[in-house]
Design goal:
It is built from seven helices and three strands, in the order αααβααββαα. It is mostly helical. It folds into two domains: about 110 residues, Winged helix-like DNA-binding domain superfamily/Winged helix DNA-binding domain (Arc Repressor Mutant, subunit A); about 70 residues. Helix 2 packs across helix 3, helix 4 packs across helix 5 and helix 6 runs antiparallel to helix 7. The radius of gyration is 21 Å and the shape is elongated. The two termini are about 40 Å apart.
């Protein structure tokens, strides 16, 4: 990747190029790298595998939200193979989409505009499966047992959270539309 492209010439992160002042409208490349690593650490603490967390954070921190494997490898100072495996993982979760680069055989990777909405909707699906499985457990356990009560309380909790989450997710597009009108 060229210094011009990395320094923001195409809307990149401004994370490569020369040392010193990043220039007007450009981020300090070292500060951006530190931010990417901090965000990746938080994601890893939440259960994300470390390398996919770094790739995801790198894409989030790029102005365009889109980088190819070579750009990600340079930004994160890792091998293209590490990027490839991470992108495959992120794609399976719907957190990254693959796009052809115009006039090139390369693929670019982009974070969807509604990525957090997708993440929460995926969590909602997981909670629904969790509740269904716990219901099976309640049917298997002796009536009135401590384990049955714990599972029943867990079901009530996840049903409450799920209903509230769906309500919030349904309200989000309206809030976004209002923000766009302002």
């Amino acid at each position: 990747m060229t210094a011009k492209r990395a320094s923001g010439g195409d809307g990149g992160t401004g994370t490569a190029g020369h040392a010193g002042s990043p220039g007007p409208g450009r981020a300090d490349p070292d500060a951006v790298r530190r931010f990417i690593e901090r965000l990746a650490s938080v994601l890893a603490e939440a259960g994300f595998p470390r390398m996919p967390a770094r790739v995801f954070a790198g894409l989030l921190a790029s102005d365009s939200g889109r980088l190819n494997a070579a750009e990600l490898a340079e930004l994160l100072q890792v091998s293209p193979a590490a990027v490839s495996g991470s992108v495959r993982y992120l794609s399976q979760l719907g957190l990254v989409s693959r796009e052809s680069e115009p006039g090139s055989r390369r693929l670019g990777y982009r974070v969807p505009d509604d990525v957090w909405d997708q993440v929460l909707r995926l969590r909602d699906q997981v909670m629904n499966r969790l509740v269904a499985t716990m219901r099976e457990g309640v049917g298997v356990l002796p009536a009135g047992s401590a384990a049955g009560r714990r599972l029943t309380e867990s079901i009530r909790y996840f049903e409450f959270i799920g209903a509230e989450l769906r309500h919030l997710l349904d309200r989000w597009p309206d809030l976004q539309a209002q923000a766009g009108d302002a």
